[in-house]
Amino acid sequence: MVDPIEIALAADANYRMGLLVTVCSLARHADSDAAIRFSVIDGGLQQEDWDFLCRKALELHPKSMFNRLTVDMQRFAAFKTWNGDGRMTYARLLLPELMPGTRHVIYCDADFLWLADVAELWTLRRADVVCLGVPDGTEVVIERERNWFAAHGFPFDGMRYFCAGMCLLNLDLCRQMDVAGKCISFLSRWPDAQFPDQTALNAVLGERPSISGVTNLVLLPEKWHRLSRVVTAADLKDGCAIHYAGDAPWQRAGWYAPLSDVVMLWYREYGRILGIGTWRALCRFNGAMKAVFLRGVSLALTVPVLRSISYWIIEDIRRATIGDELRAKNRRLGIGLA
Fold first, then answer.
1. CB–CB of 307/330 below 8 Å?
2. What is the end-to-end Cα distance of the chain in Å, rounded?
């Protein structure tokens, strides 16, 4: 029997919608002949949400299997929370321990939309490589990490800095090299790490390999990790994995987070899973009036003159309150500030 494609995710109740879309889009676009095992690190999912997830994924991909993993998050109690989402982000570090009989695994955050066949990615795993990942490529992240690594005396190569939101891990090598232990020690020593587990993984895997003949990191094509704010028409045509990092479609807190075409793709998938239209899916989270407004903002910003006016208005009103991170975020959204 051919071993299944191993996919690991982590989610709590706040990410149940993201998890549903991530898993079902993976199932929908995967090779129908491939068996897939989804292992979810459960941070507090309700049983009804878990049952619904499994049922829908099986409808899309009958060769799907499911594992529900638990982890003692008290092990990370001393670490800082991340983006208001608690400490679930650290759980991925324990995959070598949580999946003892597994040799390779694709880790994926629960805020993805897959439009590519994960079976193709699975063929890229290697026995002599610890991690395969995609360069982050986010200007503000690279700049912050470059400054942090320099201040703490670590070498840094922005071209080889990868986003931990999706990576293909060789768990055998992770166990042999104690990657998890090194990352946890790193975070204990450097609690001011900019992007907690991602910073730690890049620092640890940026070291010289401790096993002869092994490579710590090999970079993957960008199609396997495209940030939602920079997805192009060519990406969609060729198929890609879209990461809604900091752009969660079900969390549109303010008017500065409009409903872009790429966000609408997520709602289309969510609607297909629930058997409802895209607009009804959109209104479930935003209400009709907010949905109309946010979508209108997105469409208006495609008009150059309106986009220019928005720059001036935002800069004039929010100059004293908007921070550097939000400025960079808005620039990527197309409503950037000078």
1. no
2. 58
Residue with tokens 């990191």: 217
- Scan for tokens 């989402």, then name that residue: 85
pLDDT digits (tens, 9 = 90+) for 151-166: 999 999 999 999 999 9
Mean pLDDT of 213-227: 95
Find the farthest-apart pair of alpha carbons in the chain and give their distance in angstroms, rounded.
64
Structural domains present in the chain: 5-224 (3.90.550.10), 252-333 (no CATH)
> 247: which 2 tokens?
């752009």
Pair 140, 328: CB distance under 8 Å = yes
SS3 for 156-201 is CCHHHCEEEEEEEEEHHHHHHHCHHHHHHHHHHHCCCCCCHHHHHH
CA within 13 Å, CB half, 89: 23
d(CA 197, CA 87): 10
Note the pLDDT tens digit of each residue in 67-122: 999 988 888 888 877 665 568 888 899 999 999 999 999 999 999 999 999 999 99
Name which residue leads in pLDDT, 236 or 317: 236
**Summary mean pLDDT of the chain:** 85
Q: Which two three-digit tokens encode residue 41?
A: 């690190």
How far apart, in Å, are the Cα atoms of 187 and each of 65, 93, 127, 132, 184?
33, 11, 28, 22, 5
**H helices within 61-124, ranges in order?**
95-98, 118-122
Question: What is the rounded distance in angstroms from the CA atom of residue 298 to the CA atom of residue 257?
Answer: 9
